[in-house]
């Protein structure tokens, strides 16, 4: 269950990061409110997940999911660069997420 909360928190991070774009620097009320709610839920789920998961691993995975997802959404929805170098860097982040999950704690 904690892994599902962590993954959910990471997915919500993607949406609140995109929400910041739509809030226009928190000057548009509705996107700003939605973004703030998504931030609160994402951080709450992360907090619940770290009750039993190691904080360093959980935080790294949370931010990694958010980073990778936000970059992909930026490419798809905002026409941001999808250069080979940029995609290679995203690949490295994915490898880091997998490594954090698979490596032993000790």
UniProtKB/TrEMBL annotation:
UniProt superkingdom: Bacteria
GO molecular function: transmembrane transporter activity
InterPro entries, alphabetized: EmrE-like, Small_drug/metabolite_transptr, Small_multidrug_res
Regions crossing the membrane: 29-47, 59-79, 85-103
A GO biological-process term: xenobiotic detoxification by transmembrane export across the plasma membrane
GO cellular component term of the entry, any: plasma membrane
Presence of the UniProt keyword Transmembrane helix in the record: yes
Topology within the bilayer: Multi-pass membrane protein
Chief place where the protein resides: membrane
Localization in the cell: Cell membrane
Keyword list, A-Z: Cell membrane, Membrane, Transmembrane, Transmembrane helix, Transport
Similarity field: Belongs to the drug/metabolite transporter (DMT) superfamily. Small multidrug resistance (SMR) (TC 2.A.7.1) family. Gdx/SugE subfamily.
PANTHER family: GUANIDINIUM EXPORTER, SMR FAMILY PROTON-DEPENDENT DRUG EFFLUX TRANSPORTER SUGE
Name this protein carries in UniProt: Guanidinium exporter
Organism: Allorhizobium borbori
Lineage of producing organism: Bacteria, Pseudomonadati, Pseudomonadota, Alphaproteobacteria, Hyphomicrobiales
